[in-house]
Design goal:
alpha/beta; 8 helices; 14% strand; Carbonic_anhydrase; Carbonic anhydrase; lyase; zinc ion binding
Length: 218
């Protein structure tokens, strides 16, 4: 499948327009027919990579009204940046030449809630109530991320059509995940420094279906 070069701001615009259709109930379900399926069978040229939470209520292809081959999607609970996540995003940048990585979080995130509970228990001095399996390790990682902070206090839309709003813990976690992707991947940093890639983050509202974006930035 041939790749037509686009810029990050075009990718953000397509995501924003698709989300507006989804939230307004006017979805088009593009690129989901037989012709598209056959067209992408020989290769892919997504216009953006989306790194999102694993929550079943936040499927990026649906939230942004996209279809087959439109998005390169990587998901993990709480947007934890593990080696497989970095390798997947690096593949999207190096092999598929995506111009944009969007880190997508959401309000009502269970992983963030678990981290907040852990932080509250520590602050109170009460005995810790440990979660089963690997869940406690996930809560620990996110609590450290939230404790460090992202350096940002507000989330805004790219066009600044809405007033910036104070960042919630879910938004802080998402901003920190974007910063971690940038910090831990020399390949992604090099693509950004060369002007070939932008990174942005956004928060999805479970009730309204709307995504609030940050601007594309390093």
């Amino acid at each position: 499948m041939a790749h037509t070069a686009i810029h990050a701001h075009e990718s953000l615009a397509r995501l924003s327009e698709g989300n507006a259709r989804f939230a307004n109930g006017t979805t088009r379900h593009p690129h989901s027919d037989e012709d598209r399926r056959l067209g992408v069978s020989s290769g892919q040229a997504p216009f953006a990579a989306v790194f999102s939470c694993a929550d079943s209520r936040v499927p990026p292809e649906i939230v942004f009204d996209c279809g087959l081959g439109d998005l390169f999607v990587v998901r993990s609970a709480g947007q934890m940046v593990e080696n497989a996540v970095l390798a997947s995003l690096e593949f999207a940048v190096h092999e598929l030449s995506v111009p944009l990585i969007l880190v997508l979080g959401h309000e009502g995130c269970g992983a963030v809630a678990a981290a907040e509970s852990l932080m509250a228990q520590r602050a109170s001095g009460a005995p810790l109530v440990l979660l089963p399996g690997h869940l406690n390790a996930l809560a620990e990682q996110i609590s450290r991320r939230l404790g460090a902070g992202s350096g940002e206090t507000h989330l805004k839309t790219p066009a600044l059509t809405d007033a910036p709003r104070p960042m919630t813990q879910a938004a802080r976690n998402t901003a920190a995940a974007r910063a971690e992707v940038y910090a831990r991947s020399p390949l992604i940093r090099a693509a950004h420094e060369a002007g070939d890639l932008e990174l942005a983050h956004a928060i999805y509202d479970l009730e309204t279906g709307r995504v609030t974006f940050s601007g594309a930035e390093n």
